[in-house]
Amino acid sequence: MTSKFWLTNLVLFQLAWFCCALLTANASWLTPLIVALHFALSPTKRSDAKLLPFALFGCVIDYILFQLNVISFAAEQFPLWLLCLWVMFVLSINHSLSWLGKCKLWLVAIIGAFGGALSYLGALNFSAIITSLSQLSLFTVYAIIWALLLPALIVFKQRLVESKHN
Question: Which of 84, 100, 87, 86 is nearest to 157 (CA)?
């Protein structure tokens, strides 16, 4: 199960993302179920749990951008589904995105810049988030954030999660 769990994690993360993007009104009760399903099925519950503080860190970054009116939401409050999406993302670092740990950090930064920013543009195009910025400006803000955030998460995982297993 361990060797094939990366696929389960990939499907669950994509399910969570599309749930947030397309079903925002129901995502706050659906995404916690997806997180619970991940933990029920995960063969590495302990190391997965060690990554959870980084989900809170990522959510704080989005909350700051929310407070600065860079992004907002139709419900006009910061949604629970965004925290769950962050949880699913950081859990992916242990599974479907574990290959990032083998990449040079400069490449992880480039992947983060484009992948992270494009994810937020996708959310914008699905109306899961709202912004007063142009798409280029929003892309630039998130590209900078994710160029720093993704390598930091990889280093966090390697130093604080993997080193305790050895």
Answer: 100
What's the pTM? 0.91
Length, in residues, of the chain: 166
Taking alpha carbons only, the member of 68, 65, 5, 61 closest to residue 37 is 5
Report helix, strand and coil shares of the chain as percent, to nearest 5: 75, 0, 20
Please report, in angstroms and rounded to a whole number, the separation of the first and last CA atoms in the chain. Answer: 21
Helix (H) or strand (E) holding 64: helix 52-67
What are the pLDDT tens digits along the chain (166 aa)? 346 899 999 999 999 999 999 988 888 899 999 999 999 999 999 999 999 999 999 999 999 999 999 999 987 788 999 999 999 999 999 999 999 999 999 999 999 999 999 999 999 999 999 999 999 999 999 999 999 999 999 999 998 777 654 4
